[in-house]
């Protein structure tokens, strides 16, 4: 990550800035087969507040201390679950997403967890392949716990194509050592 970014916990006031980052990041889906995602509403302030209360929000801020990316995580099936990762496209391709994942992994390890899971698209290079390069591996349906399975089913219920989704898992030790 370039030195003009910092990963930290957000302030309460910064939560209201995160939906705009999510909307901007969603525009990256426009040229893909999942363009409809660009029109979905972002996380609500209530949703973000819940993650904040769980201690599950991290922000990347630029040199002016303005949020440019964020990660949301919680505990699912007894392990860290990366619910969302968004980086404003103006700050993409600079290692910000990788550093957000590393921050979540450090927190998870400090809490005594061993793995991080997530759900993503397997047919977009900056989704599944990005996570695979960081050390995540695809899970079979049998390897998914009941809570992760329920989240995956809820994604399908709101219109995400089941055939394009993949559950992935990585060891926190590996993610903590990302460069």
CATH class: Alpha Beta
> Topology as H/E string?
EHHEEEHEHEHEH
Distance between the termini: 8 Å
Parts with pLDDT < 50 across at least 5 consecutive residues? none
- The percentage helix is 25-40%
Strand residue percentage: 15-25%
CATH topology: Aminopeptidase
InterPro entries: Acyl_CoA_acyltransferase, GNAT_dom
Keywords: Acyltransferase, Transferase
Protein name: N-acetyltransferase domain-containing protein
Domain N-acetyltransferase: 5-163
What this model shows, in words?
With about 180 residues, the protein is of the alpha+beta class. The chain has one domain (about 5-175): Gcn5-related N-acetyltransferase (GNAT) (Aminopeptidase), CATH 3.40.630.30. It is built from six helices and seven strands, in the order βααβββαβαβαβα. Strands 1-2-3-4-5-7-6 form a seven-stranded mixed β-sheet. The longest helix is centred in the middle third of the chain and has 15 residues, at about 95-110. The model has no long low-confidence stretch (mean pLDDT about 95).
């Amino acid at each position: 990550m370039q030195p003009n970014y910092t990963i930290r916990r957000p302030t309460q006031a910064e939560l209201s800035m995160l939906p705009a980052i999510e909307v901007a990041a969603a525009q990256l889906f426009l040229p893909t087969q999942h363009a409809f995602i660009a029109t979905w509403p972002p996380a609500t302030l209530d949703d973000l507040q819940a993650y904040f209360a769980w201690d599950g929000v991290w922000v990347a801020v630029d040199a002016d201390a303005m949020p440019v990316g964020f990660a949301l995580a919680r505990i699912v099936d007894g392990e860290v679950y990366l619910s969302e990762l968004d980086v404003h496209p103006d700050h993409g391709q600079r290692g910000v997403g990788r550093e957000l994942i590393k921050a979540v992994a450090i927190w998870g390890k400090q809490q005594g967890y061993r793995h991080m899971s997530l759900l993503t698209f397997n047919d977009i290079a900056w989704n599944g392949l990005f996570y695979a390069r960081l050390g995540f591996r695809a899970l079979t349906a049998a390897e998914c716990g009941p809570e992760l399975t329920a989240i995956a089913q809820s994604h399908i219920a709101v219109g995400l194509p089941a055939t394009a989704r993949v559950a992935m898992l990585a060891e926190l030790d590996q993610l903590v050592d990302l460069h």
